[in-house]
Amino acid sequence: MNMVETLTISNLRGPKLNQFWIRSLGLSKDFSRIKLLYELQPFERLMAALLRGDRNAAVEVFDVETVSPTLVEQLLKLTYAEAFSSLVYERIFSLDLVGRFSGASILAATYLDEVKSSARFLVSNHFRLDEKFAKVLKITKEFKSDALWVKGAHLSRTVYQPSHFRHYGDLDVIVRPSKFEPFVEALKNAGFEFFDLPAHCNQIGVGPLRRPLDVITAPLSDWIPSGAITMIRKADDLYVDIKVGPFERGLQLVEFERLFVDAEEGACLGNTYLAPSVSDHLMIMLCNFAKSRFESWRTLLDIHLLVLALNRKPDEWKHFVQRCKLESISTNVWVGLSIAADRLSTSVPDVVLRELAPEENFSVHCLTFTVSPAFVWNSTSFPMKILNIYVSSDRKRKISLLARSFFPSARFLCDYYGDRGEGVQFSYLRYLPMHWFVLLMPGGIVRRTLGRLWWSTKSGF
Question: 329, 280 in Cβ contact below 8 A?
Fold first, then answer.
């Protein structure tokens, strides 16, 4: 069964979760600590109890907290935001909590009606999402062996119960860099357009956009954009996020090709596709959870269910730990798994947490999640790159990559800052100062100053 079961963990290995500081994403200066379950707001504790199927914990929230308009309103907002209506509605009945809602207040009873209505919408919308996914799979079928479909589109049909209708909006796909341009062209020929907003393509204003290949052009092959591009077909409101790496941090995986070797096959309405294995998908979702600063309950539930799936193949945990260390994501993974164990009673093997536990020191506690996780060559400022290197466990790789990028090949400089067709004999010194400006300055400044003079913000494809 793929149900969210109540599981326990004997002990959290490593530093205390609430010793870690986090900074909100973007330009925010809001700092806070990671909160343990008992430190969460009442509506969050109630949601955690519903997700893990813990009736006693849910009843305790009702007994301790007055079912106030604020509690009901916050719970409803969270249910909507995470698209949990189907799952939550089923849990309220299976845990015999209907009386607690309907008898508590008129507002609480209204909550049940609202969730029921939302659940019905999710059911009908889920089938439309599957139809959209099937359309894209048909358009890109020639790239089946070169594309891995990740996150909701795959997880909704593998680790979730069908009746929970795990929502997904954008279709996320990882494509081999060598097939990136033809993959984009296939979508373009099917009526898709480039979504030209910096939030959907960090290349806008900091690099050329003449053709799809420009988006993934970098000084060295280990550099990749944190997020490549989004293609949209307005006629049926279809969005496809196309990436060339899974962690969205600016660096390619050390074992990128292994993702394809270990991939598993999925199916949607008669169309087959490839997706990362359970252990690889777990790594991806844990890094995604860290990127969102551990705020997404939907991603947390994804992690919980992937752990349950991996527990059915216990020998895989050893390889999982090795790969986390190789890719230098151990701290992100340890924190994500520990949060899942704390809030959802996720059954993570003790040996896994023990092997991945970070050191207990100032930089780990205070800087790991307050420094930007992005290490993108043409968007992250030089000071932030240095801070990122300082808090990373893959310092040698990043230092080497950054140092070698100051004097890239003449071919790259001409392709990125000039015309791909021009000769390279006399272009090196001409384009090198431009390259240093992009490499050293934050993308926002480049985009608002010289970038607008050097490159068009409208794509040529």
Answer: no
Q: What one-letter code names the amino acid at 138? A: K
Residue 215 tokens read as 């988006």
Q: Yes or no: say if 148 and 280 are a contact pair by the CB < 8 Å rule.
A: no
**Candidate from 22-36, 141-155, 320-334, 404-418 with smallest mean pLDDT:** 22-36
User: What is the band of 203 on the pLDDT scale with cuts at 50, 70, 90?
Assistant: confident
Q: For residue 110, is pLDDT > 60?
A: yes
Residue 116 has pLDDT above 80, yes or no: yes
Furthest-apart CA atoms within the chain: distance in Å:
80
CA 104 – CA 65 distance, rounded (Å): 11
Least confident residue range of 114-118, 254-258, 419-423: 419-423
**Phi and psi, residue 131, nearest 5°:** -65, -40
- What are the Cα distances from residue 2, in Å, to 82, 164, 171, 306? 19, 10, 23, 10
Residue 81: other Cβ atoms inside 10 A: 11
Contact 205, 451 (CB under 8 A): yes
Burial zone of 397 (CB within 10 Å; 0-12 exposed, 13-18 middle, 19+ buried): middle
**How many H-runs (helices) and E-runs (strands) does the chain carry?**
22, 9
Predicted confidence (pLDDT) at residue 4 exceeds the cutoff of 60: no
Residue of higher predicted confidence among 203 and 186:
186
H or E, element range at 239? strand 238-243
Residues facing residue 242 across a β-bridge: 173, 229
Are 279 and 241 a contacting pair, CB within 8 Å?
A: no
Distance CA 86, CA 431 (A): 56
Residue spans of the domains in the chain: they are: 37-125, 277-358
Chain mean position to CA 96 = 34
For helices 278-291 and 316-326, the axis angle rounded to 10 degrees is: 40
Coil, helix or strand at residue 418: coil
Buried b (16+ CB within 10 A) or exposed e, 159-190: bbeeebbbbbeebbbbbbbebbbbbbebbeee
Distance of CA 388 to the CA centre of its chain: 19
